[in-house]
Amino acid sequence: MKQLQKIKKLQQEIKIHKKEIKTNTQELDKIEYDKKRIQKIFTAKTHKQATRRFNTIYNQRTQVNTHIQHFLEKNKTRN
Question: Where are the alpha helices (DSSP H) in the chain?
Fold first, then answer.
């Protein structure tokens, strides 16, 4: 019985670690993608192209942040 309990605990820990690894790899992929996009800004041939690329990244960031803030305010718990 004790061994079964230990095995179950270890299986639960493995599941938790797998979830952590998955989230960490997703975050790393996002960071790499952002690095590539930022690098494209600096390698743009014209000033207009660089500003356009910068504005798209900036607008996407602000939209994501406002969406998150709205979601947090909507689901705020009462004190």
Answer: 2-42, 47-74
